[in-house]
Amino acid sequence: MMQNDVVVVGGGISGLSLAYYCVKAGLKTTLLEKNDTTGGSFASHQYHANGKKFWLELGAHTCYSSYQNLLDIVEESGIMNTIIPREKVPFSLYIDGKVKSIVSQLNIPELLFAAPNLFKLKKTGQSVRSYYSKIVGEKNYNEVISHFFNAVPSQPTDDFPADMMFKSREKRKDVLKNYTFTHGLQSVAKVIAATNGLNIFTSREVSSIEYVDGRYIIRGGDDGGAYSAKTLVLATPSAVSASLLRDINPDIATHLGQLKAAEVDSVGVIVQKANISLKPVAALISPNDIFYSVVSRDTVADENFRGFTFHFKPGLDDKTKRARITEVLGVSMSKIEHTEAKINTVPTLRLGHHQWLDRMESMLAAKKNLLLTGNYFGGMAIEDCVSRSKSEFARLKG
Ligand SMILES: Cc1cc2nc3c(=O)[nH]c(=O)nc-3n(C[C@H](O)[C@H](O)[C@H](O)COP(=O)(O)OP(=O)(O)OC[C@H]3O[C@@H](n4cnc5c(N)ncnc54)[C@H](O)[C@@H]3O)c2cc1C
């Protein structure tokens, strides 16, 4: 059985960043990922056709200058020179078959009347609806702004804690305000996965964990492989972590089990540039549609192709999704050059999450050899994931 200091389960940015901190500290570290590639919601699909290359994000798409912990890893890994800007194309609404600007749909008098509340109200203890409907006005919130918020985690966000949706963080002045990478965000996952000394095993779905004589025995994968570790890191969605801990830490498993998450059915389509007339957009939000957003690759224009990822509500059949894709893009199915699908998992956060988190931290305080990271702690942005991994690593070292 392979002996390790640390085994990390889950190869999204949370697991990768924690594995990175461990391996850099000289710990023998192995990461096990269910899929055949690392990255999780960092899913940049690489398309090759007739000598032409194109990538399309099926999950996360934008990083910011405020992502300081992520940038530290990017810098140390030597890929700062692959950071590229995103073109300034608009985030637009799609209403009654037409692309419309956000401003054109806002009630400006209502907005002006409500806006001073921005300086009076605090987000703490407020839901997204209760806070933002006072900042932009009830009607603006219901008809326009709420749909943009819903598009962020691809689920209804009325009841999300307002202070966990968008956070203000200190920015790095030497980095573009928002950016991606030459080959998409998954470049970050790939460079971390290639860190010297880090053992990565993909296509290894961990199915059981035992705790024997002070060590964790982690099992999974078709070959039934087993990995032994002094410290266990779970970087999987909360429901998976709960089920893996059920026998060895029932209290923590039960606490994790209180959280909910949404599955996002993401479908990316690639079209020859000449075959589509839709004006360039960063994203389309269509209120009350069967998708939460269409995120486009127009932010990094390509000479041959355009790409669009539809983040659909779960449970739709292929025919329904295809029909809506062709309708919105205004192209027939025969003009769609390539389609790629991915299921992403995003947490459903609720008021009271801070209390949930406090309780979780006090339960973990007694378990220095069990680290939990993911996008369901301080927030779901990429930087929240890396920050969580950094603080869990500090707990291990401290
Ligand atoms: C559509 C979408 C768009 C987004 N856009 C942005 C954005 O632009 N900017 C931003 O900051 N954030 C964005 N986010 C949020 C951010 O990308 C995610 O919160 C973050 O990438 C999650 O990382 P993670 O490692 O915690 O989870 P995940 O990426 O979900 O990784 C978890 C990993 O665990 C693996 N796994 C699960 N079960 C097992 C098992 N039993 N054994 C082994 N492995 C297992 C999974 O395969 C997966 O790879 C977006 C999210 C989505 C879904």
Would you mind describing this structure in some detail?
It comes from Chlorobium ferrooxidans DSM 13031. InterPro entries: FAD/NAD-bd_sf, Zeta_carotene_desat/Oxidored. Pfam families: NAD_binding_8 (PF13450). By secondary structure, this protein is of the alpha/beta class. Among the domains are: 171 residues, FAD/NAD(P)-binding domain (3-Layer(bba) Sandwich), CATH 3.50.50.60; 62 residues, no CATH class. The chain is built from 13 helices and 19 strands. The strands form four sheets. Strands 1, 2, 10, 11, 12, 13 and 19 form a seven-stranded mixed β-sheet that branches. It has a seven-stranded mixed β-sheet with strand order 8-7-15-16-17-14-18, with helices on both faces. Strand 3 and strand 4 form a beta hairpin. The site of flavin-adenine dinucleotide has 38 residues, from helix 1, strand 14, strand 18 and helix 13.
What is the topological layout?
Layout: E1 2-9, H1 13-24, E2 29-32, E3 44-49, E4 52-57, E5 63-64, H2 68-76, E6 83-85, E7 91-95, E8 98-100, H3 102-105, H4 108-114, H5 117-120, H6 128-136, H7 138-151, E9 178-181, H8 186-193, E10 199-201, E11 206-212, E12 215-220, E13 226-234, H9 238-245, H10 250-256, E14 260-272, E15 283-285, E16 291-296, E17 305-312, H11 318-329, E18 336-348, H12 353-365, E19 370-372, H13 382-397
Parallel strand pairs: 1-2, 1-13, 2-10, 7-15, 13-19
Antiparallel strand pairs: 3-4, 5-9, 6-9, 7-8, 11-12, 12-13, 14-17, 14-18, 15-16, 16-17
Bound molecules: flavin-adenine dinucleotide.
Residues 9-15, 32-35, 40-42, 59-62, 154, 205-206, 220, 235-237, 240, 264, 266, 311, 344-346, 374-375, 380-382, 385 line the site of flavin-adenine dinucleotide.
